[in-house]
Amino acid sequence: MEQKKGKDKNVTEQEWEKKLTPEEFHILREKGTEKPFTGEYDKFDKKGMYKCAGCGTELFSSVTKYDSGCGWPAFYEALPDKIEETADNTFGMKRIEITCENCGGHLGHVFNDGPQPSGLRYCVNSISLDFDSEK
């Protein structure tokens, strides 16, 4: 059953802190970043769907995952209407932050240096993701 758009955006930060591990909370709710080349899904190549670790919303298909060499899982395309993009000018950089449309959890950033057909690189923290294998 598909979740209603934005349903989990009403969850309080205190509720998120109880639901998530400290590391998940830091990345998903406090916009943290895991160290490059340390995440579970960086060199992961199974077929299936990547979901938000916070709310379970499907975000990316393994078909769009590729090895960008950046140290985090990279995808050239997100599932339609599942990702929100917001300007992020922190740390003196101009980037586009990506968050889960349903719960607002921080996923990572999107860059314009990816492969065709999109030319995009969705650079995502492994901790922000869960994975469901194809049956």
Features of this protein?
135 residues, alpha+beta, Metal Binding Protein, Guanine Nucleotide Exchange Factor, Chain A, 6-stranded antiparallel beta sheet, 3-stranded antiparallel beta sheet, 2 helices, 9 strands, disordered N terminus
Q: Any overview of this molecule?
A:
- This protein has 135 residues and is an alpha+beta fold.
- It has a single domain, classed as Metal Binding Protein, Guanine Nucleotide Exchange Factor, Chain A (Beta Complex).
- The protein contains 2 helices and 9 strands.
- The strands form 2 sheets. Strands 3-4-8-7-6-5 form a 6-stranded antiparallel sheet. Strands 2-1-9 form a 3-stranded antiparallel sheet, with no helix packed on it.
- It is globular.
| Tally of structural domains | 1
**How much helicity do the residues have?**
10-25%
> Which strand order spans the largest sheet, edge to edge or round the barrel?
3-4-8-7-6-5
By secondary-structure content and strand pairing, the structural class works out as: alpha+beta
> Span between N and C termini?
18 Å
Whole-number radius of gyration? Answer: 14 Å
- Please report which band the strand proportion falls in: under 5%, 5-15%, 15-25%, 25-35%, 35-45% or over 45%: 25-35%
Number of helices: 2
In the predicted model, the low-confidence regions spanning at least 5 consecutive residues are 1-5
The CATH H-level superfamily is Peptide methionine sulfoxide reductase
SSE sequence, one letter per element: HHEEEEEEEEE
CATH topology category name: Metal Binding Protein, Guanine Nucleotide Exchange Factor, Chain A
Instruction: Give the biggest beta sheet.
Output: 6 strands, antiparallel
Average pLDDT confidence is: 92
CATH class: Mainly Beta
Task: Give the tally of β-strands.
Answer: 9
| Global shape | globular
Query: Which CATH architecture is right?
Result: Beta Complex
